[in-house]
Amino acid sequence: MPRRKDEPGFSRRSFLKTVGASSVAAGVLAKAPGVEAQGPAVVGPGAVPITLNVNGQVRRLTIEPRVTLLDALRMRVDMTGNKRGCDRGACGACTMIVDGRTVYACSTLAIECQGKKIRTVDGLATGGKLHPVQQAFCDKDALMCGFCTPGFVMASVGLLEKNPNATPEQIKKGLDGNICRCGTFSRVFEAVASLSARGTQSASKGDELAEVLESHAELNEGVRRG
User: Fold this and answer.
1) Is 168 exposed, middle or buried, given 0-12, 13-18 or 19+ CB atoms closer than 10 A?
2) Please, are residues 52 and 119 in contact by the beta-carbon 8 Å criterion?
3) How far separated are the first and last CA of the chain, in Å rounded?
4) What architecture is the 125-226 domain classified under in CATH?
5) In the chain, where does the domain assigned CATH 3.10.20.30 lie?
6) Mean pLDDT over residues 121-132, rounded?
7) Distance (Å) of CA 127 to CA 116, 124, 130, 131
8) How many whole angstroms separate alpha carbon 108 and alpha carbon 172?
9) CA distances from 133 to 7, 22, 52, 190 (A)
């Protein structure tokens, strides 16, 4: 239909006509021979083979793409060091290190970790000797029921590897994604600070430690209510 003199250049009718033509063109191109579809290859929903590098060892699994890294290792490989806590990325009990970064394994798909170096608490001790962070947790009695400990240990390892001389503020920030429902935050802080020269020098300051404990206590209470 011819445009009326008072009709604006961009009308509802012209918009619908443009959208309709674009949809038809897209459908024709998608079915046209010799035209390759764009986008990543689709996998699943059934099980597919994947290869993971876990603590320096190659693990070959056949899992559905929806399986998390935590489930893949705990249920398929029987590596039960890291724990399932909240299962929604809030407590940190499942913390692992992937390519040098701490991640919540309960919220990370295993299939996304192919070609990356995965480290869990199961692989920290070598030759019957505990990792320095594990030893510090024992020396400072930084555990009670122990359920959150693997996640705290991995978060601490990740923190100290990036910043060997972490300050109390940096320690607090580095561990604020992990929760201890038993309330052993002060001992965890002492354990990590004992491995950091700068942290050790400042850990005795009551106001610094009080601030750490207060922030963690508030977070802990929020999780309990949730």
Assistant:
1) buried
2) no
3) 60
4) Orthogonal Bundle (1.10)
5) 44-123
6) 94
7) 24, 10, 8, 10
8) 24
9) 74, 60, 25, 11
**Cα(163)–Cα(196) distance, integer angstroms:** 9
- pLDDT bracket for residue 205 (50, 70, 90): very low
Tens digit of each residue's pLDDT (9 = 90 or more) over 145-197: 999 999 999 999 999 999 999 999 999 999 999 999 999 999 999 999 999 86
Tens of pLDDT along 78-107? 999 999 999 999 999 999 999 999 999 999
Q: Which pLDDT belongs to residue 45?
A: 86
Enumerate the CATH 1.10.150.120 domain ranges in the chain, comma separated: 125-226
Looking at the domain 44-123, which fold is it?
Answer: Ubiquitin-like (UB roll) (3.10.20)
Does the pTM surpass 0.85? The reply is no
Number of C-beta neighbours around residue 38 at 10 A? 6
Cα torsion for 169, 170, 173, 174, to the nearest 10°? -150
Distances (CA, A) of 35 to 28, 29, 97: 10, 7, 41
